[in-house]
Amino acid sequence: MKKSCKLIFTSVLLTYFAHLSLCVIAQQKKLNDKPNIIVIVSDDAGYADFGCYGGKQISTPNIDAIAKSGTLFTNAYVTASVCAPSRAGLLTGRYPQRFGFEFNISAKPADGYQISDIGMDPKEFTIGNEMHANGYKTIAIGKWHQGDHERHFPLNRGFDEFYGFISGHRDFFSFKKQPNAVHSLYHNHNIIAEEKITYLTDMFTDKATSFINENKKNPFFIYLAYNAVHVPMQAKKELVNKYAHIRDSGRRTYAAMMTSLDDGVGTIMKTIKENNMDENTLVIFINDNGATAANSSSNGYLRGMKGSNWEGGIRVAFLMKWTGKIAANKTYSQPVSSLDILPTAIAAASRKQKGTNKLDGVNLLPYLNPVNKKLPHEALFWRSGLTAAVRAGKWKLIRVSTRPTLLFDLENDVSETKDLANKYPEKVKELMTKLTDWEKGIDKPHWYSPRD
Ligand code: CA
Description:
alpha/beta, 10 helices
């Protein structure tokens, strides 16, 4: 009798544990169906200034750690070599030229447009809209730079919460006087008093971590667009002192600003880990455009800078990590784009696109399987006024309306030193046709460049 009781008890216990583990699996599956998604953007950082991209002078251990636990893209591009259109491409998964966002935000509307049209077209469906429609809690933190008017405000563009500023730059420390609306720091529609501002990079990190802690029980989407390491050059004193060995004072400050950015990334990754969210969080890190002399950043071996269609303007640091879903410590060398972030996020959330606009980006997750040798993109395109470019496979063509067209073989000449246009006229013709075909599907700029 005693023995059979024991048997019954054991069998009840086994059933209970089997049920429990099924519940855990179900719960895990539910979590993985809607993983948290964090997109971290840096601003004007040099391609060669990240340790994981070969940088030696500035230490970026936390950003490098994303590469170690995920995939590093060696041929990753943004859609424009300046801040605002680059971000518009990321936020919509569409070439910003499709909706007239060819130039940085200016105050010069093109014929037929008004000043309030300068900004991301409200008809575009953003990554915030997509994730919100999929039941995610969404927040935009940091630099917005998608238009100064209420219709462009992040809370009207798919984000449940906003903590940041509207313009393309502002001081990292507090202004002595309250600045105008676009340079002020906002929490939703409320302006934060300048005297409460400590150091912007740290404040954005703190907001991201508190948002993670507040949203442990529901899926969340964070668009964390640091304005580090864009000008003005302002860093915390103790970090500048750490780089006392760097002679150039601009570069020294830049290094300290990079360290604040990297520390921020580290704090966010630590928060994810502490909350046991590693396997349930897709993290994407991307820089918005290439290096510029203004902040003493470096593109290393890439030719050109911010504002150009050379590789140094448009090729950027791009990392992706999702423990258990994306293999660790891998590189991916086919051309990819910031356009791919939105479709990848939608696919990670196991959902379908809610917006009706045709996307230019693709879901990158299937391509990260080493068996898949297909190319994510047959070609990628750029245009900014007089200059345009196309990359297809290893070839890149640069068209400048006032000069001869250039052709480069990026596989053998990543620094774009040997123009092969005369040697391969058929290739020039082929790429030129691709470019002009693409131009048939884009709109005229809705405003003029601030540099015009
Ligand atoms: Ca930028």
